Protein 1
Amino acid sequence: MSDQGPSGLNTARRDFLVKMAQGAAIAGTGGLLWGYLLRNEARAAPYALRPPGALAEDDFNAACIKCGQCVNDCPPHILKLQPSGGTLPIGMPFYTPRTGACIMCPDIPCMKACPTGALSPKLKNINDSRMGLAVIDIENCLSYKGLRCEICHRVCPLKGKAISLEPHPRQISKHAMFIPLVHSDACTGCGICEKACPTEVAAIRILPHKLVQGKIGEHYRLGWTFDTEITQDFKPVEAAPAPAADAPVPKTAPGMDYLNEGGL
Amino acid sequence: MSTSENTVSRRAPLEGAKQDLGRLGVFVESAQSSLSKGADALASVEKLHNRTLGARVWSWRYIILRRVSQFGFLLLFFGTAHWGWQVAKKVPLLTGNLSASKFIGLIPLTDPFAALQIFLTGHALQQQSLIGAAIVLGIYLLIGGRVFCAWVCPVNVVTDGAAWLRNKLGIQPIFHLPRMLRYFILVAALLITVITGLAAFEWVSPIGMAHREIIFGLGLGFTALLAIFLFDLLILKNGWCGHLCPLGAFYSLIGKTAMLRVRFDKNSCTRCGECARVCPEPQVLNLKKLDERGYVFSGECSNCGRCTPICPEGSLKFDFKPLIRGHNVQADAIAVQRRTR
């Protein structure tokens, strides 16, 4: 028998097992390499500004079919598909506000063109989109230097809501500063402000929320604000029931005993 | 009476001898035919070499048609994206790309393999892309899955070029890979999609890269095409399309039910082997299987139309699957008639 080894062992089974192990090794290394490529490619996703209605990063990465129909249907032609070898994940739509800002079409044609739902049809009003958040570099903003620039405030499609202008009075001999403030509850991240900013490198720019927004955490209670929920910790002790009319009048005023009691 | 008995008794051995002779005759005939088959094959090859220029050009008809089709699809996408081609006001002709598109603003088309991957990431696809995938799937179930490869895929232009140049230069293979490999890569693509939650092939596909970048702006996708070209030219013959591409593997599986097939007429075939020489997937032209089935059965056949015009005897022809059996029976009958004459 050809499959009998020198010591009479049947080598067919050994050969089979070795073949299996080799196959598994090829599949394993190939799979790891492939998986690494994918992860590496997806790693740059947090830096991308996606069209309105885009799902959260991981879901968008999964759902986008890279067909470019949003790009075709974008009226100002600001959307691009990332070519391979670029800095963002391959083949998916993005825009660069400094060169081409979203003009916030009320009918949202890019979202309507999306065949997979990566740009979610749940977005009904373009003002509810959250493509990114405008962030001001206060060291280079002309308004913070005391100039009456305010361009970002004036071009903002949600002027007054997304960017407000706050007067800052200064000393007697200086005029007040009017500084722009961005409000994340209204800013869509369209980037019209970034495109309009007159500084050499834009002092206001759009960044993905994840990269700029902090979170104060659940444990802070801002007791002085009206909309802060009052929890058990802060609830005032319930007032004692009013003393009955025929109750004996205490000799000392309430509070006096309290002051003289205990280890105080 | 005795004479009649005699004749009977004499006739019996005579019949036997006749039968023997008959059998011998069949044997001789088959031996002759196998001998003459070799001669026929040579004659066939000679026929091929003696074709007129017109006949040669005519035999390129499917290659020319395929290039027209491949570049035509590219042009439709490109024209819609860049020159705003429309069928009516505000009705674009063909938006998107091969992954997903919309024809005349009405008919969605989706790459079923891409849709499958996205489905496996756990994302519930919108109705539009499901309908699109069903339409594309339906078309390829009818005309053969790998019709995509030979008639639509832009990478095919590159790999055909590499194969042509490789043939011209007579480059010998460095190593061989099993053509089954693509099915393993297909399975791996689906598994990795499930594990990573990213459409595994769509994110690395050189087809997608090249196609997207032709339509939507250049990048390094052309280096992927160059790599495929060099791989096919210098390393492995038909390496990408024939061994590695999981999209081709996917469409091979779909192509099993195809109605458009290459019919094989075993009577006129001289076994010259010219068809297998030009075929990028020669394993589909296994003569034994062709004899049994009467047509090219494998889903790996891309209906590229290289073999049908090259066949000197006209034994291979495009045909509609339900008609193939009838046509083959007819051809057999004609062959029997010719032999008895």
Protein 2
Amino acid sequence: MKTSRPALFVMTTVLLTLAIAQPAPLSAESAAQWTVQVSKVNPGAVGLSRSFQVAIYENLLHEVSKMNRFKEVLRDGDQKAANAPDLLLLKTVVEKYTAGSETRRAVTTVTGATKLTVHTQLSTPDGKIILERTVHGNVRFMGSNLRATHNLVRNIAKTIKKSSLPKPPSSVVTKAMNSTTSDDVVVVESP
Amino acid sequence: MTHPGVPFYCRPSDRLLKRWALTAFLVLVMACGTGAFAEDVSQPSNPPSSLPSTHLLGFAGARNNSKGTLSIEGDALQFKKNGKAAAVRVKIAAIHDLVLGDLSRQVGGVPVTLAKVAVPYSGGRAVSLFTHKKYDTLTLEYVDAEGGLHGAIFELKKGQAEGLRNELLDKGAPVSNAGNEPTKQTAEASSENK
């Protein structure tokens, strides 16, 4: 069977056009309006050292900023958070921690892993929970103990990326205002 | 050379002997290298106002894992990267908390890691026992002009962080109740805290 070249070309073009014309995922679009404030890491009942807490906090800020899913990423205590209209709080509570040893990892390969388990929560300032997950991070073979925090934070970022966030309240209001006449009643849905 | 009385499987192979000699030589070289690394601990420390350190993460404006000098200049703590004129500064008054800790890490980087891999019969694992070094860590929390919390971790030579912390305390930096880390990150026995 012989297929003509122009027909193949046209078919490819049509397929490509269709693929490009597909709308972007709704979650990414809606989350672009939120501002997120990363809270200080809560060590919980675990005796996690301050350096690990700081490493998780700083890595989290870096990774969340890299995601481009939020309008702005604020630090804990930032005064701008008071005026941010669509604010989400990212809280992290440490649940489990196993102190490892880089030397043991290098010598034995199978022991000495540093493991971290945290409970991460994305919520509105009034306490409504948007996302809640338990995330693990560990370093088993190569790398220093602090690398566990880096791996943990990458997993948290992946979790946030995969999840679909609701539309922020202000965007719902704007959309409703645009689509209705002055006589209509505007219903505002909270996320 | 032939040994008519000895069967061939009992004779030492020249190749095997050469390999063992090479292994012994490599182990010796690495052990000497490790000794050189370990010497630094006993060296007299610099005056606490200017210390060579590695910025692990968090100090705004400085690259992660960059080597430089940590010093106190007037009312600020500054980190100056090696070979760069500009320094990153944070006012001591902005520091919220200071915590000392320690960590142990493998030294030598990629060359030593490759050498360890090259040692036959997994001999590199044994070398790992000697190619680690302990460091002090200085973890500090400070706030920026807008009230945002920052955290930074510096790695210093063993025994140097305490001097710097004391100097910062003298200049008015606050320190939490747990001035030192509650748990050692270098715990050789893996313990699970719940």
